[in-house]
Design brief:
It is built from one helix and six strands; from the N terminus they run E-E-H-E-E-E-E. By secondary structure, it is α+β, with helices and mostly antiparallel strands.
């Protein structure tokens, strides 16, 4: 059942979405072998990939992907067999290069058939 609100320009539907970020428990970062120990001295858990040195290519952490898939299954999300991570370059000394999964995430609840925003995938 959809509740519509009458407005000056017609009927409006209220849609509320949540974007949830969670920290995965892992001993290494998502795209490098650098450690993730809590409370470490600043700038001691950085690899050449994290520092975005020229020619350094990221390699995905298999354990983190497995945890993302398990989380997606627990949320009854669609597990994408193909995921795209786009490299974003920021010009900040503390973060010269980053990777983001904005393009196609590992799991997506909206992609489930029957979801009101399902795009016919």
């Amino acid at each position: 059942m959809t509740a519509l609100i009458e407005g000056r320009t017609g009927q409006w539907e209220t849609v509320i979405g949540l974007e949830v970020h969670a920290q995965v428990t892992a001993r290494a970062k998502l795209f490098s072998g650098a450690a993730t120990a809590f409370g470490a001295v600043p700038n001691t858990q950085v690899s050449t990939v994290d520092a975005a040195f020229p020619g350094m290519l990221p390699v995905i952490n298999r354990h983190v992907v497995e945890q993302a898939v398990k989380t997606g299954l627990g949320l009854d999300a669609q597990i994408n067999l193909y995921s795209v991570f786009d490299r974003k370059n920021y010009f900040y000394p503390e973060s010269p290069g980053r990777l983001s999964d904005l393009a196609i995430p590992a799991a997506d609840r909206r992609a489930r058939p029957g979801h009101p925003r399902h795009a016919g995938r």
